[in-house]
Structure formats: C-alpha cells, structure tokens
TrEMBL record:
This is Protocatechuate 3,4-dioxygenase beta subunit. Belongs to the intradiol ring-cleavage dioxygenase family. Pfam families: Dioxygenase_C. Keywords: Dioxygenase, Oxidoreductase, Signal. GO terms for molecular function: ferric iron binding; oxidoreductase activity, acting on single donors with incorporation of molecular oxygen, incorporation of two atoms of oxygen. Coiled coil: none annotated. Residues 38-159 form the Intradiol ring-cleavage dioxygenases domain. It comes from Deinococcus reticulitermitis. Residues 1-24 form the signal peptide.
Length: 184
C-alpha cells in the first residue's frame, strides 16, 4: 500500500510541497533540478555576499529563500550558490561584481539572498543565473524566472519548473523561494 498525504508526517508533506518533482509515491527521492545554459555573462570569482541589492539603487528588491537538497531529499550543507544577473534596466556588470555573489547553505541546506528583480534585455525574459555546487559534487548551472511574466512564453530557454515559487510583490519589495535538487 502506498502512503497518502493524509498519513505522512507534516514535515515530510512540507518537504514534498517545496520540492519540484517530489511525490508521495517517491517520498525518498527528489527529481533533479534541470540544467540550463550558463550564458555569455558569467564571471568567475564573485565574492561571498548575500545582499546583491546593495550594488544598485534602482529596482524592486527581491529576497529569495530556499533549500538545496540531494536526490534522496536530504539537505545539502555547504553547497555554494553562485548568482549573477542583469540590473533593473537589463544591463550586466561585465567589469566588476555588481549583482554577482555567492551564498553557502547551512546545515539544513537553507540559503537566502537579496537582489533586485532583473530587467529584460533583447531576446530574453527576466531571469537570474545560478550555479549550485554541492561539496564534492557536480555543479548545476541553471536559471530562475519570474512567474506569470508575459515574456516567458517568448524566451527560447525558459522552463516553467524553474519559476520562483510563492512570488509575492508588495510595493517595492518582493519575496520568493526555490528548492534546488542536485546530484552529489
């Protein structure tokens, strides 16, 4: 007999709800987050910083929280999340490290970073680039997208499952979350 959500412990139900691809039938495995292109604007050596928004005075502030899990749905401690994106006007800083940084997950695989909602540039929808590297594991390179964005449908790289979850906008502040599942 397979478990139903009504008999699963509350903590597991919460984990399943936050984990892309997880289901009650496969409570011990999580679907890996899909890889996407790195793009032309990646720069190695970004500093450790969680407040990328401090690099700019314009744009809607966006705080993203989440977790990094492995394929067995276990938290990944010490995973490095390397982030880079365009500013609110769709421009990348290709000379320095504005709107570029790295955060590291805690013992429960949790992370937080604050940035700005990225602007659109020709040919792409608004997105945030991400590399997630678990200790001793393979790096996942992917992108995060804003939900309910009309530009998503016209973007050749966009994948719906890479949309930020629970996106909330209130004035000039937005919040969202995302759970990455990586191979170790």
């Amino acid at each position: 007999m397979r478990p139903t959500l009504s008999v699963l412990p509350a903590a597991l139900v919460t984990l399943l709800a936050l984990t892309p691809g997880a289901s009650a039938q496969s409570a011990s495995t999580c679907a890996l987050t899909p890889a996407e292109t790195e793009g032309p604007y990646y720069t190695q050596g970004a500093p450790a910083k969680s407040n990328l928004a401090a690099d700019t005075r314009t744009g809607t502030r966006l705080t993203v929280t989440g977790r990094v899990l492995d394929a067995k749905c276990q938290p990944v401690r010490g995973a490095v999340i390397d982030l880079w994106q365009a500013d609110a006007q769709g421009q990348y800083d290709n000379r320095g490290f504005a709107l570029r940084g790295k955060v590291t997950t805690d013992a429960q695989g949790r992370y937080t970073f604050t940035t700005v909602v990225p602007g659109r540039y020709p040919g792409r929808t608004e997105h945030i680039h991400v590399k997630v590297t678990p200790p001793g594991g393979r790096t996942l390179t992917t992108q995060l997208y804003l939900p309910n964005n009309a530009n998503n449908a016209r973007d050749r790289i966009y994948e719906k499952q890479m949309e930020l979850q629970n996106y909330r906008l209130s004035g000039t502040q937005a919040t969202a979350n995302f759970t990455f599942v990586v191979a170790r």
